[in-house]
Design brief:
This protein is of the alpha+beta class. It contains six helices and 19 strands. The structure holds magnesium ion.
């Protein structure tokens, strides 16, 4: 199942992406579709039995399938309830390039590096990213696999972790490196408005059993900058959920960004940063691609 949030006929809708188009049960007159959730968080809150049931009755809804070209894809969760939880240095090759770029010796990660991005950084899968030269001259890319929590919990064991996952999405942890390193904590440099484009879909956990064997890549103006595989994460999704929930309660709708592989701009020689006019494309096999144009901020 491929869940989307979109705008159709000037209304926000939660829908399901099909091969034949987009199913928007909110438009259906079928009795099965009454009380269809108004947004993705409400859908997630309905819980696993609702998600399982809808697979049964969705195919019978024929009065609400529209062409995919008639909808505007929005961030699957437009306004998360809490900051996006992010892992840093969670691919070994990226950890190595990051340590080298800051002149430090390479250390093995004993514990995940964890920080957050503000909810106001959320951007649509095809939304523009504003580059504001009053804030940064070092805007950088980080393609990441996003995990959306479906069932909350605390002290979740690794072997039960996937029961708590709603699904997976593509996101880019766009980072202002000058701000990130100047303030010591990552939060500000990771939280610029629009610096967390995500989507275009959330693929249901059950539909993606091979989540740790997916090609993950990022390009700028068609030139590949990052290309890797989700099998190379230092802390896998089950470990990450276990570690995070061992300290704080995870809740339905929480988003975890699982870290980026090597090839980020600031670690390149010479360093490269995003410029106005650039097209940033972030892609994960079997989930999809998001494309974001860098535009000048209106000042
Ligand atoms: Mg990151």
């Amino acid at each position: 199942v491929r869940y989307i949030t979109c705008r159709y006929d000037n209304q926000e809708q939660v829908g399901i992406e099909l091969e034949t188009g987009v199913c928007l049960p909110g438009l259906s007159n079928d009795s099965a579709a009454k009380d269809w959730p108004a947004d993705m968080l409400q859908l997630i809150d309905r819980g696993p039995s609702f998600w399982a049931d809808l697979i049964e009755w969705l195919p019978s809804l024929t009065d609400c399938v529209v062409p995919s070209t008639s909808v505007d894809y929005l961030a699957p969760i437009i306004r998360p309830r809490k900051n996006i939880i992010c892992l840093g240095l969670n691919y070994k090759d990226h950890a190595e390039e990051a340590f080298k770029a800051s002149g430090k010796s390479v250390k093995e990660q004993q514990h995940p590096v964890v920080f957050t991005k503000s909810v106001t950084s959320v951007n649509g899968p095809f939304g523009n990213i504003e580059l504001d030269d009053r804030i940064t001259s070092e805007l950088d890319w980080e393609v990441e696999l996003g995990v959306v929590i479906g069932v909350g919990g605390k002290h979740i064991a690794e072997e039960n972790a996937y029961e708590h996952v709603f699904g997976y999405t593509v996101l880019n942890d766009v980072s202002a490196r000058d701000v990130q390193f100047r303030h010591r904590q990552y939060f500000l440099g990771k939280s610029l408005d629009g610096a967390c484009p995500m989507g275009p879909v959330i693929v249901a956990q059950q539909s993606l059993p091979d989540v740790h064997d997916l090609t993950i890549s990022c390009s700028v103006n068609g030139e590949t900058k990052q290309s890797n595989n989700t099998s190379n994460q230092t802390f896998n999704i089950a470990q990450t959920i276990s570690i995070l929930s061992g300290i704080m309660t995870l809740e339905p709708g929480d988003i975890i960004a699982t870290g980026t592989p090597s090839g980020v701009g600031y670690a390149r020689k010479p360093p490269e940063f995003l410029q106005v006019g650039d097209l940033l494309k972030s892609e994960i096999e079997k989930i999809g691609a998001i494309e974001n144009k860098i535009v000048a901020a209106v000042q």
